[in-house]
Amino acid sequence: MKLSSILTKALSLLALSLALPGLALADASGTLIIAENETPENLDPANATNSTVNQLLVGVYDTLVQFKAGETAVSPQLATDWMASDDGLKYTFTLRDDVTFHDGTQMTAHDVVFTLKRLQAASAAVLNDMGPFNSAEALDDYTVAMTLDAPFGPFISALSRIYVVSKTQVEPHMAEDNARGWLAVNAAGSGPYEVSTYKPTEVVTLSASKAYWGGWDGDHVAEVVFRYISEPSTQLALLKSGEVHIAPDITVQDKLALMDTEGFKVDIGAAATPLYFQFNTASDGLVGDSEFRRMLSQSFDRKLHLDYVLQGFGSMPDGPLPPNWMGHSKGTELPFDLDAAKAMVDQNGWAGTKLKVRYLPAIEEEQAAVEQLQSNLSQLGIKLEAEGMTWPAQASTVQKLDTTSDINMIYNFPSFPDPHAILNTSFNTQNTGYNGGYNWAQYSNPEVDALLNKAASSADQSNRADLYSSAQKIIGADYPVITVSLPGSVVAMSASVKGYSYSVAHHQTFNYMDISVD
Amino acid sequence: MNYFFQRFLFSILSLFILTLITFLLSHVVPGDPAIVAAGPNAGAEKIELLRIEMGLDKPLSQQFIIYTGKLLQGDLGNSWFTHQPILDDLLRELPPSLELVFIAMTINLLISLPLGLCSARYSDTIFDSSVRLLAMVGAGLPIFWTALILQNTVAAEWQALPIAGRLSFEYRSFDGYTGFYLIDSLLLGRPDIFWDTLRHLFLPAFSLCLLFTAVGLRITRTAMISEFQKDYVLLARTKAASELRIMFKHVFPNGAPASLTVFGMQFGWMLGATVLVEEIYGRPGIGRYAVKAVTQSDIHAVVAVVLVVGVVFLLANLIVDLLLYILNPRGRFKE
Predict the structure, then answer these.
(1) Of A44, A391, A392, the CB nearest to B83
(2) How buried is A257 (Cβ within 10 angstroms: 0-12 exposed, 13-18 middle, 19+ buried)?
(3) pLDDT digits (tens, 9 = 90+) for A356-376
(4) Ramachandran angles phi, psi of A20, nearest 5°
(5) Alpha helices, DSSP H only, in A122-243?
(6) Residues of chain B neighbouring A170 (CB-CB closer than 8 A)
(7) 3 state SS of A228
(8) pLDDT over 90 for what percent of chain B?
(9) Which end of chain A, N or C, is less packed with Cβ atoms under 10 Å?
(10) What letters, b where the CB count within 10 A reaches 16 and e where it falls short, cover B281-318?
(11) pLDDT tens for residues A89-131?
(12) What is the average pLDDT across B313-325?
């Protein structure tokens, strides 16, 4: 390289760095258009466990603490700092005093208390993950105390889905429905964006809030548009014609093709949403026998699934917990070994057994996994009957033991990146299907329960990691599940999109607040 | 007029039976809306609480009585998932679907009637055979397939028409009074938006109508052929009436009633089939709303959609009957 060209480079870099602060302070401009296959049910923060709703809310509301995109540790948002009492039953939060809601009122401790009281009154789904949370009270305008019935390790993480609403705006609409009707179609937040149009089966438009308390430093757009397009080929056509910038739901094949197409790029987010085959461990039939489940657990080829169904977009599971998570224990699930399974079938005379799996045929990945299992088991002489259902129907079958099928497929969508959110949901007795939870294996092991409960109530992270690690080993030896996959969150977008980052802590969600479009 | 009174009573009865069947079916189909509403990790206690709140703990007969009681007062209830009055949801979703069906029906009539008539007039010629062949092909094309193919070629490849949506991006803030953008745009004096709406409607409407047009065309053709064979046509020909006059003044009005009945029913069927094109063309509408409601077990919303489609179906048939009555002098003279 010639000296002159190096000089020019250096000078232009210098010019760029001088210009950057100016650029960063510039007003948000441009429009970001996002395609989304699922239509939102409503806009209510009570419903933020639902990823479609949460994706909209994440930039409209603020929370006390939040996971930044790509991070798995919380950062302060509305709260500047917090303290837990020694017994872990009381948390005290200090709030920012410079936050204003979109309606212009100032955010105080009373808004936080009101938010939580309203969620409790409305039996909000989002409170399900708040463990033994009892109540909140305002100590002064900027201090909130929260009381728990029992210590709860992941409490701070769980607060990342509690979107704080403006009391002034919401209280007049409480009436008999706790403002559910009003908040379903209106927003009362303090986040960087405001909802400007809400047509839930067509389009939702967010516009940058001019008076955003956090200030606008960095690149973003003036307007974010969500277009609800359920057909993958339509999303692709719109992406190619430039009518949408981000298309998360096109087919895997099209995503592969776009990786090498000029003008497009594909982001692979390390999602932590494992897909399971859950065996009915409480069954009176063969599947209730752990030896039989040991055979079953060797009959699914995860590698084949990852390579062909997911086309490599994802990571190999190793047990029920994502391998990079705190407390992960290696090698707790048996590898694929059809010969070993065959030997067990022959030895025990299990050939001719009939089993039933229930799943959601609308989800391609589930359909493909069921087909593989069906074909593998038929080689062993076991007939697997596949029954496709809708989600409410499948969920209602596991409410009773006698209607729970031998095998159920289900994803685990952890609400926050903590082993509790996965292991407790899928393996604690208190979350069995008949207890109204997502442990559809109806798995109940007092030893595991004790470890999970102890880990949930501890605040010592290394101690928790050990407890979760032990729990996985015991779970593994009971063969309640096959962890089928850890699919990545693969999103195709126009090359003009800058700053896209998958939110690991909020599944199927990304940070539209930090995205700009060239 | 006695006849219409009977028809009216019959329609009300049909609607009641329709409501009863849908209500029963929605409850018999497995699925527990309370689980869905409770969210993940809810616990049996919370689910039970919600079940009581949603009135699902009561016996089915009692639930039905409560539901119909409210229905008679014009209250369709609230959706368990959108938390809005179902009536409001439907008033938002129905106009885009009706708009689609109106345009589809217009295309349908514009093709079926003239082609059917000409095909009958020149029956067993090459023209007639080609029309019949086309109709056969049309009848065999699944709606979603036609929709995908047209979208991929006409819209995506040739960029001749919009790929998806109801309006172009620049009109995204457009909001009217009625929800029918074709009407709203005219009321607001915006011919550009009217044209844009129409452009967005063409492909979905065409995909939707093709299957129905194939049937409509064949029925029209058959009805007209039998008219052409009647004595009055022979008489008109011997009186040297022009062929155009015979076709449009004599044969068409006499043959049309038979196909009109079919077109009336097609209107209702089309409304029930909108979901196929709404999903592909990313349009809001009652079909999409219904699918979402079914997948969530939002029972009252499902029943309301079926009821509304039923009402439209009956209304369309009532209008057809009225038209037939006006068109047919014999009916008028009977009274």
Answers:
(1) A44
(2) middle
(3) 999 999 899 999 999 999 999
(4) -55, -50
(5) 155-158, 167-170, 180-185, 232-240
(6) none
(7) strand
(8) 49
(9) N
(10) bbbbbbbbbbbbbbbbbbbbbbbbbbbbbbebbbebbe
(11) 999 999 999 999 999 999 999 999 999 999 999 999 999 988 8
(12) 86
- In chain A, pLDDT over 70 holds for what percent of residues? 95
Put simply, the answer to whether B172 touches A197 (Cβ < 8 Å) is yes
DSSP A410: E
Q: Taking a contact as any Cβ pair under 8 Å apart, which residues of chain B between 125 and 154 contact chain A?
A: 148, 151-152
Establish if B169 touches chain A: CB-CB under 8 angstroms: yes
DSSP per position, A82-141 = EEE-TTSSEEEEEEPSS-B-TTSPBP-HHHHHHHHHHHHHTT-GGGGGGTTEEEEEEEET
Q: Please list, in sequence order, all residues whose beta carbon lies within 8 angstroms of the beta carbon of residue A265, skipping any fewer than 6 positions away.
A: A258, A259, A492, A493, A494, A495, A497
Alpha carbon separation from A365 to A232, A313, A413, A502 (Å, rounded): 15, 12, 15, 20
The dihedral built from the CA positions of residue B279, B285, B288 and B291, taken in this order, carries a sign that is negative
A168 half-sphere exposure, CB direction, 13 A CA radius: 12
Band the pLDDT of B206: cuts 50, 70, 90.
very high
Q: How far is A340 from chain B (nearest CA, A)?
A: 36
A420-424 average pLDDT score: 95
Tell which wins on pLDDT, A16 or A209.
A209
The tens digit of pLDDT for each residue in B64-104 reads: 999 889 988 889 999 999 999 999 999 999 999 999 999 99
Q: Does A397 touch chain B (CB under 8 A)?
A: yes
A173 touches chain B (CB under 8 A): no
Q: What is the mean pLDDT of chain B?
A: 89
Give Cβ neighbours of residue A390 (< 8 Å, ≥ 6 apart).
A360, A362, B31, B294, B295, B297
Which is nearest to A412 in space by CA: A328, A353, A483?
A483
Closest-CA distance of chain A to residue B14, Å: 29
Report which DSSP code applies to B166. Answer: S
Name the residue of chain B whose CA is nearest to A439's CA. B41
Residues 340-369 (A) with a CB less than 8 A from some CB of B: 362
Q: Which of B83, B289, B296 sits opposite A392 (nearest CB)?
A: B296
pLDDT of residue B330: 67
- The closest of A464, A413, A366 to A155, measured between CA atoms, is A464
Q: How does DSSP classify residue A353?
A: -
Sheet (strand A489-494) strand order: A193-199, A203-208, A223-228, A31-36, A246-247, A489-494, A264-269
Q: How confident is the model at residue A484 (pLDDT cuts 50, 70, 90)?
A: very high
Q: What are the chain B neighbours of A238 within 8 Å (beta carbons)? A: 163-164, 282
Cα(B206)–Cα(A371) distance, integer angstroms:
37
* Residues 186-245 in B contacting A (C-alpha not used; CB under 8 Å): none
Listed residue (A59, A11, A43) closest to A515, CA to CA: A59
Three-point CA angle B112, B118, B119, nearest 5°: 80
Predicted local confidence at residue B19, as pLDDT: 87
Structure tokens of A383?
Answer: 């007939």
- Report the distance separating Cα A373 and Cα A375, nearest Å: 5
Contact yes or no for A437 and B81 at CB 8 A: no
Give CB contacts under 8 A, 24+ apart, made by A438-441. A438/A410, A438/A412, A438/B40, A438/B41, A439/A278, A440/A278, A440/A280, A440/A398, A440/A404, A440/A408, A440/A410, A441/A278, A441/A279, A441/A280, A441/A281, A441/A408, A441/A480, A441/A481
Q: What does the DSSP 8-state code read for residue A418?
A: S
For chain B, percent of residues with pLDDT exceeding 70: 98
Interface size, chain A vs chain B, as Cβ–Cβ contacts under 8 Å: 163
Whether chain B has a CB inside 8 Å of the CB on A240: the answer is yes
CA A185/CA A60 separation, integer angstroms: 13
